Amino acid sequence: MTALVTGGTKGIGFAIVEELAEFGAAVHICSRNEDDINKCLEEWKRKGFNVTGSVCDILSHEQRKRLMETVSSIFHGKLNILVNNAAKPSMKKIIDNSDEDITSIVGTNFVAGYHLCQLAHPLLKESGYGSIVFTSSIAGLKAIPILSVYAATKGAVNQFTKNLALEWAKDNIRANAVAPGPVKTELLGSVMDASEGGGAINAASYITGQVIAVDGGYTA
User: Fold this and answer.
1) Neighbours of 217 (CB within 10 A)
2) Which positions ≥6 away from 29 have C-beta within 8 Å?
3) By three-state DSSP, how is residue 84 classified?
4) pLDDT, tens digit, 9 for 90 and up, residues 154-186
5) Residue 129 catalytic?
6) Which PANTHER family does the protein's record reference (predicted)?
7) What are the tens digits of pLDDT across the range 57-102?
8) Level-2 CATH architecture, domain 2-214
9) Domain ranges of the chain
10) Catalytic residue chosen out of the listed positions 114, 129, 150, 206
11) Mean pLDDT value across the chain
């Protein structure tokens, strides 16, 4: 089993990588920070995990293309799992978001994942049984103050997940989104441990076109 996890060095992304590696998957990660990648790779090597990594700013069209070329080379043209996890947070009132803020957040949180799906399609199809998982957010399901642009991108991700599942079912490719509540990261206080969100990836084994809220009942 092979997997690509974007934003795999921290938070839920890190937990997802560990979850997949523990199941024996060969995983490739990307991050903008080479030092973070190397630190994680050293830790995973000590644990005996099969993980590789490369630097990629997913906001860059060309870097996304190079990332998928790297993944194709490492995994010999096949990919079982694409986890679109990397995202840019934004906590501003609606009136305070600039055009640059909106462009950057939408580009990182939605356009990048859309393009990576396009690039990964032949690899996922070639694997015979592909799976796409988006890390979404409860902000895409429920109105939360000062998260308007971020929430809009996650709402778009949720709908895109359903369209992917519909259009690519014929290629034996599934698509699901995991929508965590607030998670313990460097940016937020502790509400839910990142491993709890990462563990939800396994829940996607038999379903497609679903947005799975992992929030302790917050959106119930």
Assistant:
1) 7
2) 4, 5, 6, 8, 9, 13, 17, 37, 40, 51, 52, 53, 54
3) strand
4) 999 999 999 999 999 999 999 999 998 875 544
5) no
6) ENOYL-(ACYL CARRIER) REDUCTASE, TROPINONE REDUCTASE
7) 999 999 999 999 999 999 999 999 999 999 998 999 999 999 999 9
8) 3-Layer(aba) Sandwich (3.40)
9) 2-214
10) 150
11) 90
